[in-house]
């Protein structure tokens, strides 16, 4: 066994690696960072989360304020996916999600995308679910992964 392997297998090596993983949380979110870190440990970790559903009757929701005229809201398609890269919202599974009838909503300021949000229909991706997806209750959607740019 090399000294490098010994160092990584020691408690101090595991702590050092875990601290590196924590710094990488921004890349794929906390769930992805935990999965990466757990895959390197000799023990298995279990993630347990409790979900709370909030019911809002659409009839009780006031109409939204209109966007300023320079902004436009639209339902994105596959051709729009490259535009979310500037928002750090580009996901490797985006095309798969669109094919599965999930929705990607975007807001443009002129030609520039300034905001995006996924709306998952029927099921939603989550690290806590056994196979990575949580079945949603009938008649609900899960808005997630909203991203916006900073004002310039």
From TrEMBL:
- Top-rank taxon of the source lineage equals Bacteria
Task: Name it.
Answer: Uncharacterized protein
